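Figure 6 in text form: structure in, sequence out.
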C-alpha cells in the first residue's frame, strides 16, 4: 500500500490575524440581529446597538484587511487564494462602510436598507473568514 506524504510546509495564520478575522463574524452577525430586532419592534435602542456593533466590526475588518494586504505584498505560495481572500475582505469592508453610513442616519431612515446591508455584510464576512482559514492544513 502506497502512502502519500505532502511535502508542503504547514503555514499558520498569525494568532492576532486569526482573532481579527474571526472577530468580524460575531460583530457583523450581532449587527444583523440587532437590525432584525429593530425591524420587529421599532425600539430605537436596537438601531444604536447595531450601529456600535458594525463600528466595532469595521475596526476588526480594517485591521484584518491591512494584514492581508501585507501578506499579499510579501508573497505567498498560494497567491491566487491570497488575492481572493484580500478581495473578499475588501468587499466586506466597503459594504460595511456603506452600512455604517446607512446606520448614521435617523433611526427611521435606516430601514429596510440597514437590514439588507447587514445581511449581505454578514454573509461576505463569513465567506472571507472561510476563505481566510481554508488555505491552511491541519498539522499532523
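Output sequence:
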Amino acid at each position: 500500500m502506497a502512502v502519500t506524504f505532502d511535502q508542503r510546509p504547514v503555514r499558520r495564520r498569525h494568532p492576532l490575524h486569526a482573532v481579527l478575522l474571526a472577530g468580524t463574524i460575531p460583530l457583523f452577525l450581532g449587527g444583523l440581529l440587532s437590525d432584525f430586532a429593530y425591524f420587529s419592534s421599532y425600539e430605537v435602542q436596537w438601531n444604536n446597538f447595531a450601529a456600535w456593533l458594525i463600528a466595532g466590526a469595521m475596526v476588526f475588518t480594517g485591521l484584518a484587511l491591512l494584514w492581508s494586504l501585507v501578506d499579499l505584498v510579501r508573497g505567498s505560495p498560494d497567491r491566487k487564494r491570497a488575492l481572493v481572500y484580500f478581495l473578499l475582505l475588501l468587499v466586506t469592508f466597503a459594504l460595511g462602510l456603506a452600512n455604517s453610513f446607512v446606520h448614521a442616519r435617523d433611526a427611521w431612515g435606516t430601514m429596510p436598507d440597514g437590514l439588507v446591508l447587514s445581511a449581505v455584510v454578514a454573509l461576505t464576512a463569513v465567506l472571507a473568514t472561510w476563505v481566510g482559514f481554508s488555505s491552511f492544513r491541519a498539522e499532523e
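Caption detail: The chain has one domain: 15-133.
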